[in-house]
Amino acid sequence: MSLRLAVLGSGSGSNCQSIFNAIDDGRLDAEVVIVLSDHEDAYILERARQRGVRAEVMDCGGYKNKFPLELQAEVAEKLKALNIDMVCLAGFMRLVKEPLLAAFPNRILNIHPALLPAFPGVEAWTQALNAGAKQTGCTVHYVDAGMDSGEIIMQAYVPVKEGDTPETLHARIQVQEHILYPAAILSAVSRL
Ligand code: GRF
């Protein structure tokens, strides 16, 4: 039976698109049932709408970074009602806590633009450049209550090149992210 996915994102949604693409070309037997964003103008919502996928804004009550616990409870209930099997965070910029975690144990994944445990947190590609790293990459991991701290599922390496700027490095990392995320979802499914 095909996997029922929910995707949460705050930005452009290129990783969400890579999941759509993997579904369309048969790499992933899944359906994205709903896309949720904390920003009403996030392009990830537009990508969902263009595909005919349910797209909804989560009202975080004016908090810049907080993901209110009551809202997380509502989201958990909504996703349960939709029989969601797995939740994919794709550029979602708020920390997931209980009760969303408890509702989907080992079923919430995140993609991070560095080789965790190196460079957790924001602008991981800039952190890698500033640290003089020779290589960086991306990681798909299970989400726990910490910041980019859950068990690692899969990683891909990306070399840091002479003359890289934050933008060129992030763009090269994203190419790998788009290959990695669908593959890591499959891997996580095989472990359920
Ligand atoms: C990606 O680099 C992802 O690793 C990070 O945020 C970015 C989201 O990009 N967590 P997009 O919205 O999927 O294009």
- Major beta-sheet overview: 7 strands, mixed
Poorly predicted runs = none
Strand content: 15-25%
Number of helices: 6
Instruction: Return the string of H and E elements.
Output: EHEHEHEHEHEEH
Ends apart, CA distance between termini: 14 Å
Order of adjacent strands in the largest pleated sheet: 3-2-1-4-5-6-7
* Bound ligands: 5-O-phosphono-beta-D-ribofuranosylamine
Protein described:
With 192 residues, the chain is of the alpha/beta class. It has six helices and seven strands. It has helices at 14-24, 43-51, 69-81, 100-103, 124-130, 166-190; strands at residues 3-9, 30-37, 54-57, 86-89, 108-112, 135-142, 152-159. The chain has a seven-stranded mixed β-sheet with strand order 3-2-1-4-5-6-7. Strand 1 (3-9), helix 1 and strand 2 form a beta-alpha-beta unit. Helix 1 packs across helix 6 (166-190). Residues 9, 11-15, 90-91, 111-113, 138, 174, 177 line the site of 5-O-phosphono-beta-D-ribofuranosylamine.
